[in-house]
Write a structure and sequence with these properties.
Elements: H1 21-49, H2 57-66, E1 71-72, H3 73-78, H4 84-97, E2 100-104, E3 112-116, H5 118-141, H6 149-170
Antiparallel strand pairs: 1-3, 2-3
Helix pairs in contact: 1-2, 2-5
Domain HTH marR-type: 25-161
InterPro entries: HTH_MarR-typ, MarR/SlyA-like, Tscrpt_reg_MarR-type_CS, WH-like_DNA-bd_sf, WH_DNA-bd_sf
Keywords: DNA-binding, Transcription, Transcription regulation
Amino acid sequence: MPQRSPIHSAPALRPLPRTTRTEAYLESLQILERLHRLLLDLVKDEFERLGRTDLTPVQALLIYNLGTAEVTAGELRSRGMYQGSNVSYNLKKLVELGYVHHERCDMDRRAVRVRLTPEGQEVRDRVSDLFARHAEGLELSGVLDDPAIETVNLQWRRVERFWAEQIRYIY
């Protein structure tokens, strides 16, 4: 069998420099930030296509995350989804816009319970449809398979738990 000349042989593969764990962690944080901004842009674009410019993407996601539950603003904050002033301001706006109903708790008059109005449920359904379309497209493309999205989620839950423990440790 004739030997291949060096000109036609594949280039020798040199090992790439190994990034440190810190560099990989920092890259993950940057990706998370970009993903969050892109998510907000996707929600904004969807609502602009629907002619709904009265909601911010953050408000639409708050409606989505509120779902069918009836909760207090404090419970939304304790779920770790929103900062205090952010959730209070946005809930107030959503009540004014008619997407969220609120009423004082019988047991603790300082607390306000909130739930979606039919208009809020319609917004939640639109966001849910958007996410279902994205999940289907990602599934068809194979993006969710390597590594499996369930494995990625497990890893992110571990990071979330670590961060939460760090915050509790500080106080």
